[in-house]
Amino acid sequence: MENISNENKRQSLQILKKVFGYDSFRKGQEEIVESILNGQDVLGIMPTGAGKSICYQVPALMLKGITIVVSPLISLMLDQVKSLNEAGVHAAYINSALTETQISKALYNAMCGQYKIIYVAPERLETNRFLEFVMNADISMITVDEAHCISQWGQDFRPSYLKIVNLIKRLPKRPVVSAFTATATRTVKEDIVCILGLNSPNVMVTGFDRKNLYFEVRHSGTKDADVENYIRKHQTESGIIYCSTRKNVDNIYLSLKKCGFPVTRYHAGLSSEERKENQEDFIYDRKPIIVATNAFGMGIDKSNVRYVIHYNMPQCIENYYQEAGRAGRDGEPAECILLYSAQDVVINEFLIEHKGENTEFAEDELALIRENDIRRLNKMRYYCTTKNCLREYMLNYFGEYSTSQDCGNCSNCIAVYEDRNVTDICKRIIYCINECRGRYGANVIVGTLHGDRNAKLRSYNVDRLTSFGMCHDVNPALIKSAVEELVMREVVSETQDMYRLLRNTSQAVEITEGKTQIVIKWSLQKAEAKADKLRTRQKKSSMAFSPDTAEMALFEKLRGLRLKIAKEENMPPYIIFSDKTLVDMCVKRPSNRDEMLRVAGVGENKYQRYGQRFIEALKE
Ligand code: ADP
Ligand code: ZN
């Protein structure tokens, strides 16, 4: 047993190096590969960019028969198959983008043993032709990508995923089943294990932490200017700006275009040709900036995205982490910035309220789904208002716990805060809410306590209340933060309509009776300038490579060569080599085959195709 496992280890490492060009497995990958090779089912819960594909592609090449990968996204299949072919692995895909003749041909080739890995769309699983193929072929493994699609509690339930279960049951010999997802709430996890019928699976939650990503939440009343300034400061970099509506996408796209930035856009309102063209402009770096709705990005594996800006708050942490996670897939430093305004919450609630209308769901099912969505939305909101480490917050959400409280690479960890005991202010807030009998939202409560005399407050006659001006000497922003803290702790609840009226919950007595103290982090100064400095330092020190001008020039030269080859081959540049691989070339300066093969991301096949040209470029 020991020997087999050592032998497996040796062989899998060899394939990792030879085919994919990597020296070692990332955390979690090795265990997953080993389980699969031992015939044990696995459920890998890993965030976007953590390297799920390697987890099933390496064993797929070692197993005797064929691996079927069920994947919901055509663009993703295309990318994966392209990458595999580049690495010298024979793979194919079967989906609705192919004609019947093409499908027949692919399945015929598969029968003849041409492919080790076949990607297939879930709708295709029960077609006669496909069934005939799997019943007669030697299927070693079924891999289910984006496995959360099988759960009704996930963000994108796909009924056709249920077909996978039937397929597995029908096969003459049960293959090993491996499932992967980036979603990790408990219900979804349980659903995947139960519905897919995983056999005492090795469940690996791993690698949610993306150390190279800097996270920031900015409470902003000037989002347009923020976006523009940011892009101006990062002119040479590729980035994504996500908006919640098509209208926002169009507006920002037009204003950035006016500024002369190389920008394109993507949303479901554009024709499919235009979407395709724009997506390619982005991927091929002809237009390295894209403004898009969340319709964009599924299956996009562009590794050199240096920033992801959210113009609007997404509906849940799962979506946010996935979208933000499209930054920095090459492992180099990248930034994820969320521009928050309270308005975003209202818009999202509206969307949730109207979600699922005219679908096959029954009313009570819909009610449950909405309830779940609202719960997730609240968690997203707390992310935007917490003063604690943003990374820690998200890791906890996904069920991972880190040891440190201070990651040093998020806007909260690098800001300068002071602990402020606001228990007294909170008592007054609770008093004021009581006095208003739940008729007002946060802004009126804050204005009342501060004793403001504007027209709106006057029309409510709040100046007659005892609480009017009770906190006249406190900074209104601090009162507001205290209100947010109370909402987050569920001492105060908000109505779920657009008015967001505040009410005290039963927990309020804990505070009024002095049983609980409330301490919040209060930013000492508008620390942005300072934070900026700190960040630059952080960014430098976390880079393995802090290039001087000569090295920058070399890197640019290699990028140029990559772009040239990409054009010749009609491939996206990052499929030829990632930025990280180019950086590694700049550091290692390989001058022969052996040295080139030591560069991260250079496998045998890629060496044969491009190695020599890069060595020559490095020599010059
Ligand atoms: P996921 O499917 O989890 O979103 P991918 O499988 O696309 O992520 O991998 C993300 C990136 O990480 C890819 O560029 C991939 O080549 C790279 N990668 C994966 N595993 C390793 C490894 N062991 N060493 C170095 N790079 C890796
Ligand atoms: Zn942090």
SSE topology sketch:
Blueprint: H1 2-20, H2 29-37, E1 42-45, H3 52-62, E2 66-70, H4 74-86, E3 91-94, H5 100-111, E4 117-120, H6 128-136, E5 139-144, H7 163-170, E6 176-181, H8 186-196, E7 202-205, E8 213-219, H9 223-233, E9 238-242, H10 246-258, E10 263-266, H11 272-283, E11 289-292, E12 305-310, H12 317-324, E13 334-340, H13 342-354, H14 363-385, H15 390-397, H16 411-414, E14 417-421, H17 423-436, H18 442-450, H19 455-460, H20 476-488, E15 492-494, E16 502-504, H21 508-512, E17 519-523, H22 528-542, H23 549-569, H24 573-576, H25 579-588, H26 593-597, H27 604-619
Helix pairs in contact: 1-2, 1-3, 2-3, 5-6, 13-14, 17-18, 18-20, 23-25, 23-27
Bound molecules: adenosine-5'-diphosphate and zinc ion.
Residues 389-391, 407, 410, 412-413 line the site of zinc ion.
